[in-house]
Amino acid sequence: MTAIGGFHEPSQKNGALGVHSIGEFVLAVPAPEKAADFYGAFGLEVSDSANQISLATAEGYRWGRVIGGPRKRMHHLSFHCFEEDLPRFKAHLEGQGIGLLTPAPGFDSNGLWLIDPDGLLIEIRVGPKTSPDSKAFPQGFDAEAAARCAPYRRLAGRVRPRRLSHVLRFTPDVERMIGFYSRALGLRLSDRSGSTIAFMHAIHGSDHHVLAFAHSEAPGLHHLSWDVPTLEAVGLGAMAMADKGFRIGWGLGRHVLGSNYFHYVRDPWGSFSEYSFNIDYIPARTEWEPLDHPGEDSLYLWGPDMPPEFVINAEAAQD
Ligand SMILES: [Fe+2]
């Protein structure tokens, strides 16, 4: 994670304007206490105060909050920008005729609040660059000769995600979301498969996608993706979740678009959290050409058959 505040050297040609990271998600669910069980088992640090459950990684950064609500939905999604870009964003959004809102009650901030075309509340605020500044090349496998390389399972330790990598949302109109997040927030298309799925990155250097969209009959959350440092952590995380009763999911496999190794675990509300390892990286100032990939080549390189529940939009099913 990059330090915050102060002036940043321009990382884009022509001073292009764009958020640099996802800062935080806030979920509303009918039974927030289940979030503590699920995300605690997943490897996050869970704390409960002021009627909300906070979800952090080991070094203390808070990636999300879970609050009570009548039905499961994303309450809002916060994006981070550089300090010098916040007034530019205000002028930019107003120039596009995008209405700015007062902060959501209970979420005081000096950020900019707006609504996306699917009705999701968005905040743009000054905050730390949570997206990496460079590709984190994986460590090599333990491969020493004359040694026992694998530990006992009981000594493997708890898997702890390092950071939130991306959020994938269902939408009735993928094209409209690509257009909105390009124009309003300055995200850029990384790859897509027709009008079925699209992946977008941030222009100041980020994972292949910080935000992605999959077509569905209604808006909703498909998954939150959490970066882990090794392929082994993907497997150990999945096994630890299964041991705690969270057995439904999909993995181990490897995606094509983004290239990450994955294992998804279904959460108590029918969406997923993903253990992700070694996702592609798009540096700042990269002329990345988005491609439109055939559907059969867009999902996974290898892995078990995708289970039918993986494409169910649980939020649409609530209606
Ligand atoms: Fe993902």
Characterize the structure shown.
The structure is a single chain. By secondary structure, the chain is α+β, with helices and mostly antiparallel strands. The protein is built from five helices and 19 strands. The protein has helices spanning 33-42, 86-95, 174-185, 231-243, 314-318; strands spanning 21-29, 45-49, 52-56, 62-68, 73-81, 112-115, 121-126, 163-171, 188-193, 197-201, 206-207, 211-215, 220-227, 249-255, 261-266, 272-277, 281-282, 291-292, 300-302. It has a ten-stranded mixed sheet with strand order 18-9-10-12-8-13-16-15-14-19. The longest helix has 13 residues, at 231-243. The radius of gyration is 19 Å and the shape is globular. The model is unreliable at 1-5 (pLDDT under 50). Fe (ii) ion binds at residues 166, 168, 223, 225, 274, 276.
Blueprint of the fold:
Blueprint: E1 21-29, H1 33-42, E2 45-49, E3 52-56, E4 62-68, E5 73-81, H2 86-95, E6 112-115, E7 121-126, E8 163-171, H3 174-185, E9 188-193, E10 197-201, E11 206-207, E12 211-215, E13 220-227, H4 231-243, E14 249-255, E15 261-266, E16 272-277, E17 281-282, E18 291-292, E19 300-302, H5 314-318
Parallel strand pairs: 1-4, 5-7, 8-12, 9-18, 13-16
Antiparallel strand pairs: 1-5, 2-3, 3-4, 6-7, 8-13, 9-10, 10-12, 11-17, 14-15, 14-19, 15-16
The protein binds fe (ii) ion (FE2).
Fe (ii) ion is lined by residues 166, 168, 223, 225, 274, 276.
Labels describing this entry:
33% strand, 7-stranded mixed β-sheet, 19 strands, 10-stranded mixed β-sheet, binds fe (ii) ion, alpha+beta, 5 helices, 319 residues
